[in-house]
Model the fold of this input.
Amino acid sequence: MTTITQLAQQMQYLFQTRANELAWETGFMERERLMTGSSFASGLVSAYQADSHVSLAGLSQAIGNAGTPLSRQAVHDRFNEKSVRFMQAMLAESVKLSIKGRHLKHPLLDHFQHVVLTDSTIITLPNQFADVWRGSGGNGDNPSCAAVKISVRWQLSDGELTTVHLSDGTAHDRTVLQDVAVEAGNLYVQDLGYFSLNMFKQWGQDGAYWLTRYKTGTIVMDQDGKPLDLQDWLPQQVGQRCEASVVVGQRAQLSCRLIAERVPPEVIAKRHKRIRETARINEQTPSQRRLALAHWTIYLTNTTAQQLTLDDILFIGRCRWQIECLFKLWKQGLHIDEWQTTHPHRLLCEIYAKLLAAIVTHWFFIVMCWHQWRRSLLQALPALKAFAWQWANSLDKRSLLQHAFRALQRALSRCQMDKSIQHPRHFQFWEAYYA
Done:
């Protein structure tokens, strides 16, 4: 668990010590001058954290607040290839820091070292950046030749972002994180984009556990090697569930558990709509088999029944949408997919600074209020935005920075969701489970 004192130390290290080192290494600083890597990075990040639509004048004020008074023109002139390299390096450096909240206590989480959620989101960029981040440039409602994919691994138990990886928008999810090691004892829950039987087999050999939805077209056999026709074999009544030991993949021959639940008509209708919309965007015809299998929620896992029961599997599988909420917060709350300029270097600096602001925002959340099941990050965000200029101004004063963090922690502790009978909150499901 990261304490307030440790968070202050890490913030000072990243935005002062390491920022100035990286400024020299990337060429952003070539000689001693008024502008430092520290004031530029902390100024940009705090500015975009406070106001995602901040103007050039606002950036000038924020950099001044961080220690370097500059005119708007002077700030504009600092946006170049070197500042882009510097901000990209700062973003990469932030991911190396281990910031984690107090470990949530719940029987469902105690069977594993960590429950890790994995997913990605894409930011579409102007076509002029195709040589920086390559996009598909093909089908869809908003095709672009430039896009950046943000892949995230997020520990559900303590909130730590163990991976934030940037790649071309065209990169397949399955290949993006293939070189990122998994840890024995962890349970990895991920979307279908990461589905790979060979990868799952290797993870099992490495002592890690995995949970994934079934991918249409994957061959499923019983323990004797006889193929199963899932449409006939799965339960036919709404609400019925089943569990079986199966072998999946003609070549992989991966032994695992299959868990399935027949869903109600309204859920089927939503899934069919989503499948047809995806097919329309990709200019394809939706698979009839995929439409048919939408009648069930199907999971595959290498966990044992002693670790996770059938009900546990279905519950944890539904928790994966929490990472979708994280991306929603980053896009709708911090607007990481928007920019206020057409200047190419300033635009890239803005994207990297906003992503860094999103990571710093997440640090504050997990250290200061993660341990509260009823926490509301949406409620906490305005308080944190108002605090942005204060942390940037206090970086060189450890005691003042810690004092400000404790004041923010008291404010965030009051940002909690109320219970809802009609639409139960996520924390209500966790509290009710094993109650």
User: Anything to note?
Assistant: The first helix runs from residue 4 to 25. The CA atoms of residues 279 and 360 lie 37 Å apart.
